[in-house]
Amino acid sequence: TKTLKETLQEVIPAKQEQLKKLKAEHSQAVIGDVKVENIIGGMRGLKAMLWESSVLDPSEGIRFHGLSIPDCQEKLTPAPGGKEIIAESMLWLLMTGQVPTTEQTRQLSKELAEKGELPAFVEQLLDSLPKTLHPMTQLGIGVAALNHDSAFQAAYEKGIKKSEYWTYAFDDCINLLARLPALAARIYRNVYKPGTELPKIDKELDLVGNYTRMLGFGDNQNMTEYLRLYIALHGDHEGGNASAHTAHLVGSTLADPYIAYSAALYALAGPLHGLANQEVLRWQQAMQKELGENVSHEQIKEYLWKTLKSGQVVPGYGHGVLRNPDPRFLALQQFCESRPELMESSTIQLVKKTSEVAPGVLMEHGKTKNPYPNVDATSGCVLYHYGLTEYKYYTVIFGVSRALGCITQLTWARALGLPLERPKSVSMGALEQLVKSS
Ligand code: CMX
């Protein structure tokens, strides 16, 4: 059986050829206009970067190399005894564009488990951080510190050819992913369960199986399966979102994958992006506290208006690209609906009821281009139900997941020899001149 790296080695030349042809034959072709609204509107809608592993369609949502979420649920190998997509099979698909065999998936699980231990100095570094420091800040620090052992940085210092960049970047990427569960679980233990024993990595388990065990939820097969699905679904969402774009931008300076991904984590830590899943739980809990049990749709509607009138956003709703309910939201809801015990949870019921009322209220409010729920609207409530109630930790789980897409891009950007990213900025005065002369 070929390893992931050997498979990549086989698929890279064709992609390099495709890019070469695009450059040679179409470099000057015009594919769109730049409007003033793109420049002052956060570059929405501007097609300005290459990203191979997934494409986000505004109405139907994400596809990974052409496969929708239901396609992936049907085709990608689950863990032994499980049903949900696992990180390894999703990574293989993202990296190579191919659906891996069960044997390939298991081999990758083994490789990740073997590489998963943290260097002692990183453990000490994490243990020395104040417990009051946000878990996302801690994760970014831990990931950046792993660059102590960066193969890419060492090779670059020694002097390597551009054509060799990707193999060192790939090795760093795999080591980074392998170590994320131990890193993220250590932060959880330090902050929320001090004094409890962190289990060692089980070489027979998949990445997320190990992560769940290290968090202390390994006995709960439902939680393990939920986290497998959660982590596979949050892995990649094309390139323009803030975390993915940050990893790509920083990586384009030839900073090694660890620091590039550390930077991406801090983009993920903003409330308009990944931190929204923490915000949803915080907001829903405040709603529950104010309104009590058995909340009616009418009461939720009033609470939504109160949030909007106080000038805040409704967390978990809206999207920069999507214009329909997020299929990741639908897949997580489906997970709940297939388990009656989840549907009885008051937290999950409240999230569901909110999703039935919020689109109408947001439409009436009339600002957001997308009144529907995004994945963050529901991702936290299942964690909460299973006992992972510390919602300031939720974005760390997103951070373990988003590595899948970012390390894929970091590897491919080096394999394709993509250049330093450096768009042109303009001042308002220059923009006025440009408008006059257009
Ligand atoms: N609640 C209230 N107002 C909202 C809103 C929401 N959920 N979503 C958008 N709006 C407002 C915007 O703030 C903006 O208002 P202003 O004109 O006053 O600035 C207006 O509607 C237009 O925004 P938009 O074009 O529809 O949305 P953007 O592309 O600018 O922003 C996003 C997208 C996600 C930041 C925004 O919808 C939002 O803030 N949502 C809540 C936070 C959230 O759930 N983020 C997670 C997104 C998914 C992820 O990345 O994880």
Automatic annotation (TrEMBL):
Keywords: Mitochondrion, Transferase, Transit peptide. PROSITE patterns: CITRATE_SYNTHASE. Pfam families: Citrate_synt. This is Citrate synthase. The lineage of its organism: Eukaryota, Fungi, Dikarya, Basidiomycota, Agaricomycotina. Coiled coil: none annotated. Gene3D superfamilies: Citrate Synthase, domain 1 (1.10.580.10), Cytochrome P450-Terp, domain 2 (1.10.230.10). Belongs to the citrate synthase family. It is found in: Mitochondrion. Transmembrane segments: none annotated.
